[in-house]
Design goal:
CATH superfamily of the largest domain: HUPs
Strand content: 15-25%
CATH class of the largest domain: Alpha Beta
Helix content: 25-40%
Strand order of the largest sheet: 1-4-3-2-5-6
Radius of gyration: 19 Å
Number of domains: 2
Number of strands: 10
Bound molecules: adenosine monophosphate
CATH topology of the largest domain: Rossmann fold
Shape: globular
Largest sheet: 6 strands, parallel
Distance between the termini: 29 Å
Length: about 300
């Protein structure tokens, strides 16, 4: 496995693979990799001849008061994980390689990005769409892999790819959790022992909400109230949002009808903001219910 830092090196390698007729998968990450990232890389390696992992803490998706400086980093450990998972190349650029000092072009989305995380993080999705577009242009992959953990991001990327005609298949992958239910996240490292225990209120609320919906509850408020009550019972937790939206358009809904829904939350545990969610598709009650389009399901991989 190679680790490179320049755009030119990535392009040269990908062109060489293309000349051999090989397919390429891309897994964009911000590093400090864990089993959640690994699941994306393993899936990409199973479905493509070569896998590129980008390992870049993207400054344009962080707001001025957010954790850009303190975001955890361990490139050596990341390289080991990538190699074990089957990546062929890790792209680890400096911010100056990705953004010229006078860069002023962004990819902005009018809809989908003003709800959920977009309300608390107003420039976040502009940064995500911009860096993912740049990575798509640099790597030109056949497929790109994203986790359902960041479900709004997955919906936003699917919309961007459709709207801007990227010839890339977007593959969504299920949320990987710790044994006790907490969704794996690089930010879990910020939690003290006491906060780590408190953080379980997110997955408890997700599982409870999902169970209610699977048992037939169709009223969003009833489900959300039950989920909020679980989180509010935890003294260290402060809700940013707990909402139910139409998964494709990220617009709030009152009733679950016949389109896939995303039930998503962001919760502060102390100073750390964590997210979690479940997706439900009434049309696929027997299946995983994510309702994603494309060749493979973003939750169960079917
Ligand atoms: P990040 O490094 O946090 O930007 O995440 C890079 C990719 O890994 C995104 O597509 C995330 O959705 C995905 N990811 C992060 N955590 C998980 C997880 N626990 N399970 C599955 N995918 C994840």
């Amino acid at each position: 496995m190679q680790a490179v830092t320049t755009i030119a090196e990535v392009r040269e390698q990908v062109k060489a693979w293309r000349r051999e007729g090989l397919t390429v998968g891309l897994v964009p990450t911000m590093g400090f990799l864990h089993e959640g990232h690994k699941s994306l890389i393993v899936r990409a390696a199973a479905e493509n001849d070569r896998v590129v992992v980008s390992d870049f803490v993207n400054p344009t998706q962080f707001g001025p008061t957010e954790d850009l400086e303190s975001y955890p980093r361990d490139f050596e450990r990341d390289c080991k994980l990538c190699e074990e998972a089957g990546a062929a190349l890790v792209f680890h650029p400096e911010p100056s390689e990705m953004y010229a000092p006078n860069a002023c072009t962004y990819v902005n989305m009018d809809e989908l990005t003003h709800e959920l995380c977009g309300l608390t993080r107003p420039i976040h999705f502009r940064g995500v769409c911009t860096v993912v577009s740049k990575l798509f242009h640099i790597v030109c992959p056949d497929r790109a892999y994203f986790g359902q953990k960041d479900a709004q991001q997955l919906a936003v990327i699917r919309r961007m790819v459709r709207d801007l005609n990227f010839d890339i298949q977007i593959v969504g992958c299920p949320i990987i959790r710790e044994e006790d239910g907490l969704a794996k996240s690089s930010r879990n490292t910020y939690l003290s022992a006491e906060e780590r225990t408190a953080a379980l209120c997110l997955s408890r609320a997700v599982f409870a909400g999902q169970k209610m919906v699977e048992a037939g509850e169709r009223d969003a408020k009833t489900v959300l109230d039950a989920m909020r009550a679980i989180i509010e019972a935890e003294p260290l937790a402060k809700i940013d949002y707990v909402k139910m939206v139409d998964f494709e358009n990220i617009v709030q809904i009152e009733k679950i009808e016949n389109v896939p829904v995303l039930c998503a939350m962001a919760v502060y545990i102390g100073k750390t903001r964590l997210i979690d969610n479940f997706i439900y598709d009434p049309a696929e009650d027997a299946g995983c219910g994510c309702g994603c389009s494309g060749d493979s399901c973003c939750c169960c991989g079917a």
